[in-house]
Amino acid sequence: MSLSLLHDASILRLIQIAIQEDLGSGDITTELTVPRDATAAARFLMKEDGVICGLPLLPLVFREFSADVDIVLKVEEGARVGANTVIATVEGPAHALLGAERTALNVIQRLSGVATKTRTYVDRIAGTGATILDTRKTIPAWRRLDKYATSIGGARNHRVGLFDMVMIKDNHITACGGITEAVSAVVGELSSKPSMRVEVEARNLDDVMEILACRGVHRVMFDNFTPAAVREGVMMVDGRLETEASGGITFDNIRDYAETGVNFISVGAITHSAVALDISMKLFVPKQG
């Protein structure tokens, strides 16, 4: 789990943008129906089974409305929880609770959906030794949140963006004139950045052989290989580089890929096809005394 992904000013800005999108010039319904000095309490309730994710963001949402909202988390972040489980309660000014409701739900429903889908893939390959990686196929501007959710689901983060890892893909190879040419150009410029890792995409087994002959590569990606071809590629690499399978991988066939001996399997579906988990926020009358 990487809580560090949430320790970024961009997360607060994203929440503020979401609140402004929803709130606009004001919550007209609440303003007309609820006294300004009214207080309230509410429960966040799971409507289906899943992996809960996003609880650390609830304070960021509610405190944009009021510093007087008391938030109590009832389950651990990343826990598997069943339907009808109360995962958190909030208490404070009614206007704050009602104004924050949709943004808070949108955040934890989306992140819990990603974490839940990720966990199903992680469980699917349990015991094989392979590791699930996420991708950059995320909601625009939600990259850090989506990658946080995949880590909560048990996956490992691939690169966050274009800046933190060299990843030579087919279009780079075409534009540069070949694998050897692309790798040579990269290695020649990275002498001042020895910690920068280099991954190269292979489109076939001949590419794998060429990559193995290059200096300075850390990982080879088998792109759109069949499981049988991945197995052969892993044998060719023979531990000299890290190995990754990507492309054409589904929930139904991912274990076949994992059993080839490949180190990593990158899966875009855990973010781009995740369905939000059904969670509600319901007001209640708190017990007195």
Q: What features would you describe in this structure?
A:
- This protein is of the alpha/beta class and 289 residues long.
- It folds into two domains: 3-122 and 275-284, Aldehyde Oxidoreductase, domain 3, CATH 3.90.1170.20; 156-266, Aldolase class I (TIM Barrel), CATH 3.20.20.
- It contains eleven helices and twelve strands.
- The protein has helices spanning 9-23, 28-33, 58-62, 94-124, 143-152, 170-176, 179-189, 205-212, 227-237, 254-258, 269-272; strands at 39-46, 50-51, 70-73, 80-81, 86-93, 131-133, 166-168, 198-202, 219-223, 242-246, 264-266, 279-284.
- The strands form three sheets. The protein has a six-stranded parallel β-sheet.
- Helix 8 links the parallel strand 8 and strand 9.
- Helix 1 crosses helix 4 (94-124) and helix 4 crosses helix 5 (143-152).
- The protein is elongated.
- It starts with 8 loop residues before the first helix and ends in a 5-residue tail after the last strand.
- The model has no long low-confidence stretch (mean pLDDT 95).
